[in-house]
Write a structure and sequence with these properties.
This protein is α/β, with parallel strands linked by helices. The protein has 15 helices and 23 strands.
Length: 496
Amino acid sequence: MATPDWVQHAVWWQVYPLGFTGAEKAQPASGGSAPRHRLRHLTGWLDYLLEMGASGLALGPVFASETHGYDTTDYFKVDPRLGADADFDELIREARSRGIGVLLDGVFNHTGRTFAPFAEALEQGPGAGTAQWFHLDWPRDWKPGTEPAYRDFEGHHQLVALNHEEPAVAGFVAGVMKHWLRRGVDGWRLDAAYAVPPAFWARVLDDVRAEFPDAYFVGEYIHGDYPAEVRGGTLDSVTQYELWKAIWSSLSEGNFYELEWALQRHNTFLDTFVPLTFVGNHDVTRIASRLDPAPGQTASRLPHALVLLFTLPGTPSVYYGDEQGYRGIKEDRAGGDDDIRPSFPASPDELSAVGQPLYRLHRELIGLRRRHAWVHSARTRVHSLSNEQLLYEVFDAGNSLFVALNLADQAASVPVPNAAGEILAGDGDGGRLDPQSGQLTLPAGGWVVLAGAAAGDRSRVQAGFRPDPRPRRGSVDHMSYWFLAWGANSRFTSRI
């Protein structure tokens, strides 16, 4: 599958709405509670997203559910803890007015126990019209009130696995996707896609793309043969967990050989699809916690992770709070995700000043990325490698950048190819390039991005791009690149 053209310019800000808005951990026991209109809280953060340089809002679960959102009970209803249809429509309208794309999180491998078709099957028994929607093991002498055994998701009995061989399930899922695409969203993250047969995704997405050919579909995959899953399911992308692991692990351990191996794999994936890249999400320990300076280290290696995220090929995603240096540990227990899914203040003005340097670094690197949008589907090659120093080139047929990283607590020099040019970005102490010797000196814990021979700073108005004339908030220079890139996207501007 060819990734929709607009995705080349996408940088997602991923938000877990139930946590972000401070919603209750579970639906009130009484049920039928009035909507709490918390989605409006998110609307006030859209300009913050833009000013950081992001162009898309990737939402975690927003549909009615029992607890954490991944136990959906009604796929056509906004979770009352977040609001109602009008709140969702307002969020989409406000996003559209800013040119922001929206991605929804679809939990189509399993449902909550109070999902109406499952409740119908339990009540009516083997003859229920929805009995085939699930993997149910009925007692031979079934009587009303007797619950069958059923297949669940990875041992979580409250998560009821859907039967993806049942045509009615495929029709239902396609109907859900099209309903919300008609409401203005731009694509879907497919939760636990790895647990679903690829043929199911192929059937569903063929149906959906008949009406929405430019919709974007990214599957959650952790291990396995990513390209085969993309081809089999006709997905646009998958979550690049291999690269995520290699980034934090190589930086934490001072072992760039692990990252170099992952980059080789990453190149092979790019022959088939462009992965969704990230250094944090709603399911993992925060990157700032992973890379807290270890005993004996004098500086954080968190900036290096961001340099990698924004200079490597892929569609980058920033998990809310990571741009402010939020910390949180994922724990394998009930409530073990709470620390990594916190609430955000009422407005950006209430954020601590402690996170501003990291936020500014995000803004700088996203700006660099936007000036070199070709990086999205480029390739990488390593020129210099040791445990604590790495120099790699990201390139396509007519462009290149060089990136140098130093993890050591002392300055280090690395050889650079003749094609390396001026320094485009670097840490506060910068780096020094000696053209005569071809050596780049990096400060302790430093990093540098250099122009390639054919890269440099490209024209702000690239061929085929047209600026969006509507006024925008924010005066940071790199934002102009964002407007030009995203404004070229008629699928967004035409909906406003």
